[in-house]
Design brief:
The protein is built from 8 helices and 5 strands, in the order ααααβαββββααα. It is an alpha+beta fold. A 5-stranded mixed beta sheet has the order 2-3-1-4-5. Strand 2 and strand 3 form a beta hairpin. It is globular, with a radius of gyration of 28 Å.
Length: 295
């Protein structure tokens, strides 16, 4: 007896064309994992890219595809904040109000946007354009305060620049983030990218900015002062220092200022900090034996 295809007996409300497209994409997602159930997270983004949120139909579809119950799928969908359980706007405008961004003005930005758009956290404007939310740290503290639009960065924002950004989004104007892709795409399109389907824009725009690279410049300047030459190219392995006498043959001593794992770097302890350490840097010399008592 031939098994009936999942799509033919789906309990979702998707039309045949949508269901067929979803099923084809779901097969690609499942093929990435040894255990198909591991594909639940990207599959939730997939259904969100169709419905604009994780709908009842989306939950049932994921359950049918992965052999899970609807309760198991819902448990995951309600745990992560990137999965929306009610219709989301075309653009999610997230204001970081974690500690650093908050003290740099994040709270003021959120309050101004909330008043300007007349919506609160996780609420959507009547035109369906913007869903406003408070977000936790976006790992961009060097550009605080930060606003994100569909998870694209807008750095060093102010209440005025953020409201202007929101107005441009609502008017349909193309908006370019500070870093990353050359423009902001829709929430549905970004959900498809998060499902693991490339939109061909990974190499667009600016990557690391000046603030992010400041530490690297300081490290290179320090290396230059120390007279350490950098490799001529990223593909060229850094020159090795002569092997120490206590190292196995061919095991070169690591050099500071070059590309190496911190786990490979040997800690040097100044003699002044540990008078008992031997000149060669080995273990401290044992304490001299105490003489016997003449008494």
């Amino acid at each position: 007896m031939t098994a009936e295809p999942v799509g033919a007996r789906s309990r979702t409300g998707y039309d045949a064309e949508t269901l067929a497209a979803l099923t084809a994409d779901a097969e690609l997602i499942k093929a990435r994992y040894p255990d198909e159930r591991s594909g639940l997270l990207p599959m939730l983004h997939l259904v969100q890219s169709v419905d604009g949120y994780v709908s009842r139909d989306g939950v049932v579809f994921c359950a049918e595809q992965l052999g899970l119950t609807a309760a198991e799928v819902s448990a995951v969908a309600t745990f992560y904040t990137q999965y929306k359980r009610h219709p989301n706007g075309e653009y999610t405008v997230g204001v970081c109000t974690n500690t650093l961004c908050a003290v740099m003005g994040g709270d003021a930005i959120f309050d101004r946007l909330s008043q300007h758009l007349d919506v609160g956290h996780d609420e959507t404007t009547p035109d369906g354009k913007i869903t406003l939310e408070r977000v936790e740290c976006n790992a961009a503290c060097d550009y605080a305060p930060v606003v994100m639009v569909n998870w694209e960065f807008f750095d060093n924002q102010t209440p005025g620049s953020a409201t202007d950004l929101a107005d441009r989004l609502r008017s349909g104007e193309d908006v370019a983030p500070t870093r990353g892709a050359a423009s902001v795409c829709s929430f549905k399109r970004m959900s498809r990218v998060l499902a693991g389907f490339s939109d061909g824009r990974a190499d667009e725009g600016v990557g690391a900015g000046d603030a992010t690279l400041a530490g690297l410049r300081l490290a290179r300047a320090a290396a230059a002062v120390d007279g350490i030459e950098e490799p001529s190219s990223q593909d060229e392995a850094p020159a090795s220092a002569p092997a120490s006498s206590g190292s196995p043959a061919g095991d070169a001593a690591p050099r500071t200022g070059t590309e190496q794992s911190s786990a490979e770097r040997q800690e040097s302890v100044p003699e002044d900090d540990n008078p008992g350490r031997s000149p060669s840097g080995g273990k401290p010399n044992p304490e001299p034996e105490k003489g016997g008592d003449d008494d």
